[in-house]
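The instructor's notes for this session suggest beginning with a concrete chain rather than abstract definitions. Hand out the sequence below and ask the class to guess, before any prediction is shown, which regions might be ordered.
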Amino acid sequence: MKVLLVEDDPSMRAALERTLARRGLAVDCCGDGAHALARWRMAPPDVVVLDLSLPGLDGLQVLESARRDGLATPVLILTARGTVGDRVVGLNAGADDYLPKPFDLDELEARLRALGRRRGEAAAPPEDLHVADLRLDRASGAVYHGAQVLELTPREAALLQALMARPGHAVSKERLFELVFPGEQDVHPEAVEVVVYRLRKKLQGTAATLMTLRGLGYLIKAA
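After discussion, reveal the predicted structure:
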C-alpha cells in the first residue's frame, strides 16, 4: 500500500517513515503543503496522512484543493489539534479519519490499512488519458509516447496532465498556474509560458500539438 505522509516536523516525519516502512507500507514523504498537493496530483497514493499545521498551504487548504480537483484518495488527518471542533472542520473538508497526537503506532497502522481496504473495495482503476499517440498512465502519472516514457519535470507533467484531461478544449493560464505552481505566491503567472515552451519542445516528434489560444489559454489536440 502506498502512503503519502505530509508532516512538517522532520523528526516526526523520519520516525513515521521508518516505522511504516518496517510494517510493509511504501511511504512517500513531504514537508509542505504545496509540494504535497503536487505529488498527490501527479501520482495519487492509496492513502494520505495529512498534518494540518504545514508551511505555505496548510493541511485543510491542501485537502480542499485536492477534493475540488476530484482526488478521492482516503485521507487520515494526523495533528496536535485534538478538539471536537477541529475534527468536525477536517471531516467536513473531506477527510476520512482523524487521529490526534500523541497516538499509538498500532492504531495508526490499523486505520491506514482500513482506509486502504475501503479504497480497494470502492474504487475502480483510473482510466488512462489518451491524446493522439500520447498516453497518460493515471496510476503512475507517467506519460508515454508509444512505448517510451517522456522525460518530464514535475511542472511539465502537471501541465500536460491538465491539458490531456480536456483534449481539444482550452485551459486558462490562470487555472494552469494553480495546478503547476500550487501555493507559490512568489512566482509570476507568466512562468506558465516558460513551462509551455519547454513542454512544447518535448512534444516534438509526437502526433500531439500544444496550441496557444490568445485570451483563452492553451489546449492539446491531435496534430
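Then share the key points. Residues 129-222 form a domain with the Arc Repressor Mutant, subunit A fold (CATH 1.10.10.10). The chain has two domains: 2-122, 129-222.
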